[in-house]
Design a protein that fits this description.
heterodimer; A: alpha+beta; 5-stranded antiparallel beta sheet; two-stranded antiparallel ribbon; 9 helices; B: about 625 residues; 7-stranded mixed beta sheet; flat
Amino acid sequence: MQVNPKILLPVLIIMAAGCLAADAAVLTRTGAFALFARAARHYQDGEFKQAREAYQSILDAGWESGPVYYNLGNTCYRMGQKGRAIVNYERALQFMPRDGDLRFNYRYVTAGVPKFSFSFGPRLVSRALERHASFYSQDEMVIILTALATAMVLVILISQWQRWPLKRLWWCEGGLAILFIIFLTGFILKVQYRLNSAFAVDASEAKFEPNPEATTHFRLQEGEAVRILRTEFGWLKIERPDGQMGWVPGQAVERLE
Amino acid sequence: MRIGKITRRNVVFVAALCFQFLWGAARAPLLSARQEISVTAEVSARRLTLQSSAQLTVTVTGAQNADPVELPEIDGLDLQYRGPSRRVSVVNGHYTSSVSFMYTVFPEKEGEFQIPSLNVMVDGRRFSTEPISLRVEPSSPAGADPSAGSGEFSGLEDRVRLDLQIPDRDVYVNQRVPVTVRLYVAEVALNDLQYPRFDETGYRVEVFSEPRRYNQVIDGVRYEILEFQSVLYPTRTGELKIGPAKLAGYLLYRDENGGSRDHFGSLFDDPFFSGFFGGTQKRPIEVASGPEVLNVREVPESGRPDNFSGAVGRFTFQADASPREVQAGDPITLRMRVNGDGNLAGVRLPEMAEGDEFRTYSPVVTSDQGGRIVEQVIIPLQKEVKLIPALEFNYFDPQDRQFKVIRQGPFPVTVEPAPEGRAVFTSDPGAPPAFSEPDESYGEDIVYLKSRDGFLREKGKVFYRHPLYFIYWVILLALGAGGPWLIKRRQRLEEDPVFAARVSAPKTARQDLHKLQRLLDNGNPGEFYDSLFQTLQNYFSRKWQLPAGEISPASLQEHAFYRRLEARTRMIVQELFELCESVRFSSRRRERQDMREDYRKVEALIRESEKRCK
């Protein structure tokens, strides 16, 4: 089959241009870092809007990290958007839960804002579980769970091979199993929290029904944490930390995930 | 560029050139091998003065691989090796090679000298040179004072000498002692002179000043003199040996090589001028003076203050304090300056001691020309403080032989009460500062940005969503579930031979069946039925732990496992056993088709046994 070069050449050029354009549209890690640095300079110069756009561009390009969310949280706070600041700090906590600066800023910004606290059995247990779940990032929990599971299998195999007494096997496996359960619980809590949590980006009213004309049930503070129960026609049924439920428009809150 | 055609003539010409070159190169070693080896020694000049040098050349002709000659020590001559020089020449086809070793001859004294016959080893053979005579005559210095006459010098050491002079031999430790070092030079040229140096054990010498140059006639000889002045400080008592002082430089020689005379001798008659216009050789030289002995005493005990600073000499001391009006808790700086001609290194400099009225800090000491500056910060602790106490510096004057004290101050100060809220230091050094109630609030704000982007990762791209992670879990679970069973089975196989045999029975049977198949292909009924019989025997023996020799249909009947087989199968077993015996012992004929049929029966039998009798 003979191909007319006069047709083939322009086609090839167009395809190459398309590829280049596609490459140009994709932000590489180096490009993301450059944007990160540029955003910091905008922040330093007091240009918070440009800084927020730069950080958002990084996220929109599909890149994320704890410091990006942290810096975005700072920027939102400087712009007076406390709710968005809290959301971004929460997202940053998923990456670096033990970062001192982040925990300080989070506590500072959420001072006086109602938050969910985990309730499971006695208060001491609840607090311990909550601390445990918030101490590790999700990735760290997965790594620990994998390591524990591997250790459990290895213990079983070694016990068979070395003919351990049953008591020793039970003690080892029992200890590992307890740790596994603890971390699995923490992991589940974390995942649930991430999937269901949202924060009010502005002060808003929660209605009895998903209708702007419906009766207002309660007011949401900016930055207040809520749990999303249901979605319907662009409205979200939410639950407040004190258990009160209501309907808010989708744009009134920002999901964590 | 046009390249001409390559013709046959061109090729022949180039080939001839190459051949000639190669032939010459190939012949060269042959030619050199045929040369006679000879060794000669010659000097560039046989008559020298103390200001001139000559070149000794030892040439080995006919060889390239000779080693430099080891020259003997000759009293009055200094021979220094300069290096080799190799030469190859081809003259009228005659190839000559030689290597020359060059030495510079520096005369050290006047007289007649002889360089003895030198032995050179070349290619395992020994060659000798002729001895060479040299005469070193006194030099006639240009520009000499006619009235001064010429001195009698036995050698170089008379023409260059170093003198150490210390006027005062009875000194105190740390006393400033003047030192003079003089370099006397006559009728030779020196260059690149360094400052005198001492081996400073028990004393410290200051840096020498820029030397003074002058001429002097001593015993009828005119000397150029360089005079270096410095001071030294003895640091220990007793008899102290000073020096010798040493001074290094280069002695300049006129090169007597025939073509490089210094024509500008009349103009550059200054012995310290270097030979800019070539024709000179440099030889390193070091001159040393004689030592001197000092008697170093300790400062007297009587009259010595308890806080004697250790300074010996004559000093001045100034002190001042500023600011003079302060609030309680504000610092005041004391500035003290000590100048003098003694050694201040290691001397205790004045400072103010801690007390009830002042908090003091460690003084900072700096040096400048001739003295030391001490700065000390003090803080008045109470508003009642009116005076900064006097400061004093004591020292021992070696000339007056008495201890002296210089006092500065006291310095009046005005201390006002500290404002409220200001930290005020108390007289108790261990107590923290007492604060008045601070009326201060700390600002609150969020912590600043992170400067590093952390580990940027693609959204949703986490390792636990990777397929490999799931595969890992599958393997882990499989290990967890199957691993113990496998280990247990393996252990049982190792420990339980009955079980091991029963487990291995089908595997062994399969091997036997393979063998049976081969025998079937061969078509020999005798071997086939022998093997078939053994297959059955081995299988049942392993399977049910029966002695192989006792396996028979009758003995099998007694086993419960055997009775699990179908009746038809049991009958086949019996038929097979009987068939095997009849073929083996009665030469019953069996066709290949029959053998194949029997093979299938055995296979089916073993299969069923495995199914029914686990």
